[in-house]
Design a protein that fits this description.
mainly alpha, 0% strand
Length: 228
C-alpha cells in the first residue's frame, strides 16, 4: 500500500508540477507580449516626439500653417503611445481596443485644431519664412512617420494587436501628409503665398480620412473579438 501511496503522491506531484510549469509558460508569454508592446510604443513615441520638437522650432521661425497642422498631428500621434503603453502594461486586449478609441479621438481633435488654424490664416494672410528649413521640417516629418509606422506595424502583426496595427497604418499615412509641408515651401517660394493655408486645409482633410479609416479598423477589431 505504501509504495502505491508513494507512487500516487509522485504522480500527483508531477501533475501539479506540470500544471505549475504550464501556468508559468502562459504567464511568461503574456509578460513577453506586454514588454514587446511597450517597447514598440516607446520607440515610436521617441521617434515622433523628437520629430515634432524639431518641427516646432521651425514653425516658430517660419509661421507656416501647413507645418503647424503637421506638427500638431505628430504631437497627437506621439501622445497616443500613452494609452497604448498602459494597455500593454496591464496585459488587456480590451484595454488595447479602448486605447485604439483614444487614438482615433486624438487624431480627430488634431484635425479640428489644424483646420481652425488654416481657416484663420486664410482670413488673415501671412507669408511663411525660412522656406528651406520649412521644407526640411517636412522631410523630417516624413522620415519619422515612416520609421514609426515600421516599428508599430511590425510589432502589431507579431503581437496580434489590431490597435497597434491601426496606429502603424496611421503613421504611414501621416508620412505622406508630411510631404505636403514640402509642397507648401515650394509653392510659397514660387510666389504663391496663399498655398500655405490651403495646403494646411488639405492636410486637415487627409487627417480626417485617417480618422475614419482608423475608426473602422477599431470597430472591426471589437466586432471580431465579440464574435470569438
Amino acid at each position: 500500500m505504501r509504495p502505491g501511496s508513494v507512487h500516487a503522491r509522485g504522480v500527483g506531484h508531477r501533475h501539479a508540477h506540470g500544471d505549475h510549469g504550464h501556468s508559468h509558460g502562459l504567464l511568461d508569454e503574456s509578460i513577453k507580449r506586454s514588454h514587446e508592446g511597450i517597447r514598440a510604443v516607446l520607440l515610436s513615441l521617441a521617434v515622433l516626439g523628437l520629430a515634432a520638437i524639431a518641427q516646432t522650432v521651425v514653425f516658430l521661425a517660419s509661421g507656416s500653417i501647413a507645418l503647424l497642422a503637421d506638427l500638431i498631428h505628430n504631437f497627437g500621434d506621439a501622445l497616443t503611445a500613452v494609452p497604448l503603453g498602459i494597455a500593454f502594461a496591464v496585459r488587456s486586449r480590451a484595454a488595447e481596443r479602448n486605447a485604439g478609441l483614444v487614438v482615433v479621438g486624438a487624431i480627430f481633435l488634431s484635425a479640428c485644431v489644424a483646420g481652425g488654424q488654416a481657416v484663420q490664416r486664410l482670413i488673415e494672410p501671412s507669408r511663411p519664412t525660412h522656406l528651406a528649413a520649412l521644407a526640411l521640417a517636412g522631410v523630417v516629418g516624413f522620415a519619422a512617420n515612416m520609421l514609426a509606422s515600421r516599428i508599430r506595424l511590425s510589432a502589431g502583426r507579431r503581437l496580434d494587436s489590431p490597435a497597434l496595427v491601426a496606429d502603424g497604418h496611421h503613421a504611414r499615412a501621416d508620412a505622406y501628409v508630411s510631404l505636403a509641408v514640402v509642397a507648401s515651401a515650394i509653392a510659397v517660394w514660387l510666389g504663391f503665398a496663399g498655398a500655405d493655408p490651403i495646403i494646411g486645409l488639405v492636410i486637415t482633410l487627409a487627417i480626417l480620412g485617417i480618422t475614419r479609416r482608423s475608426w473602422a479598423a477599431i470597430r472591426e477589431s471589437a466586432h471580431h473579438a465579440g464574435a470569438l
